[in-house]
Design brief:
Blueprint (H helix, E strand, L loop, with lengths): L1 H14 L5 H9 L9 H17 L1 E4 L7 H12 L15 E5 L6 E5 L5 E5 L4 E3 L5 E4 H4 L10 H11 L17 H17 L13 H14 L1 H7 L1 H11 L3 H9 L3
Parallel strand pairs: 1-2, 2-6
Antiparallel strand pairs: 3-4, 5-6
Helix pairs in contact: 2-4, 3-4, 6-8, 8-9, 9-10
Length: about 260
């Protein structure tokens, strides 16, 4: 009964949306990343985006006014990883903060001698456990151009990873996905990537397993052939996890099937 009521409520939210078809079309047209999706998938992605807009609050930092177009571009990219998973995968938090450009939070780190140091480093995005997703608009605005880098997907995949209470490159596994196999595949690929950087894959992925998953997820959606050539087993594992196969989807689109 609860599941039925939740689905009924979500459908009411979707049908009550006041965003015009023209606004959705413009947003899709600005995101080459989504070109390979079928019409049915685009409708599903739009519905998920409406639900995400309903469930999350957008806050503009430094007096930034987050326009409808900005929100649509962000949520369409954010919902791509959960296209076949569902909106519940983004539960447990409420806010998306958008900075005009890169931001540099002040952090205190303790070195190996126990001394505390205050540091600042400019970021394009950040995801907090049970907290907000933070994005730089200058980086998010052109994230969907299929260059292999996508700050929106990167940070929202961190949110999926955090569903196991820690960002460690090991998100919750679906039924039928072997946790042992996932661990073996990603551990081997991560260690190889640390020793042998692959052209086109951001070296930032070598800093931690969580960043490796987020970086490779960017490439999975933006340049899937590049990931498949470098780490075919990782591509297959991500395809099973996201329940998507961008390579075959694009081949089907190009062949008109």
């Amino acid at each position: 009964m609860f599941k039925f009521l939740r689905k009924w409520r979500q459908q009411r939210i979707i049908t009550s949306s006041t965003i015009s078809p023209g606004s959705w079309k413009k947003a899709f047209d600005l995101l080459p990343l989504l070109e390979h999706l079928s019409e049915d998938e685009k409708y599903s992605l739009r519905d998920l985006a409406i639900l995400l807009l309903h469930e999350k609050s957008f806050i503009g930092a430094h007096d930034l006014e987050v326009s409808e177009e900005m929100r649509l571009l962000i949520v369409l990219q954010a919902c791509l990883p959960i296209l076949h998973l569902g909106i519940d995968w983004y539960s447990g938090w409420t806010t998306i903060i958008v900075y005009p450009a890169g931001f540099a939070p002040e952090r205190t780190v303790v070195d190996e001698f126990g001394l505390a140091h205050t540091t600042r480093s400019e970021l394009s995005g950040e995801a907090w456990h049970r907290g907000p997703v933070i994005l730089s608009w200058t980086h998010a605005e052109n994230a969907g151009i299929k260059d292999g880098h996508n700050v929106v997907i990167h940070e929202f995949v961190h949110k999926l990873d955090m569903l196991n209470d820690a960002a460690n490159g090991f998100p919750p596994m679906h039924k039928g996905i072997s946790a042992v196999s996932w661990s073996e595949i990603f551990t081997a690929a991560f260690e190889d990537f640390q020793r042998n950087p692959k052209p086109g894959l951001d070296r930032y992925g070598a800093t931690a397993p969580a960043e490796f998953l987020a970086v490779l997820s960017e490439v999975f959606f933006e340049k899937p052939d590049l990931l498949n050539d470098a780490y075919p087993k990782v591509y297959e594992a991500l395809s099973l996890f996201f329940k998507q196969d961008p390579i075959n989807s694009r081949l089907s689109r190009d062949q008109g099937t």
